Amino acid sequence: xxxxxxxxATLEVxxxxxxxxxxxxxxxxxxxxxxxxxxxxxxxxxxxxxGVSAPKATDPLALAEWSARQALVDAGYRSMDTVGMTADLxxxxxxxxxxxxxxxxxxxVAGLVPCPAWLEVTRVMMLERQDLTYYDAS
Length: 138
Known about the structure:
By secondary structure, the protein is of the alpha+beta class. It has one domain (2-135). Helices cover 48% and strands 22% of the residues. It is built from two helices and three strands; from the N terminus they run H-H-E-E-E. It has helices at residues 2-52, 60-74; strands at residues 83-92, 95-105, 118-126. Strands 1-2-3 form a three-stranded antiparallel beta sheet, with helices on one face. A hairpin with a 2-residue loop joins strand 1 and strand 2 (95-105).
């Protein structure tokens, strides 16, 4: 009688283990995806914040992009080769703003959960000074 119980426990573990491993890898994939997205979002938010408060005679777009790249390096990104970043001035509701977009290829941990191939985050912040001649170096 004992022998049957021991065999049934082994069978239960053998049947449930693949499901549990799949569940754990799905949690890891989702966690990794949202962590990477949060790092990118935080970096471009910091870059846009620096760009909109640029001092006189400074290019706010170049400053925003440089600051966002620096934030990514500080967050542990070793290479900027896989990160595409664009910064441009846009007019939103009659006010000039900086739009900063970052795009990176996403590589899942286990690949069992369908996730997008690219992580793309965009942030828009209004310039503190609306007079664009303020930023001209001439």
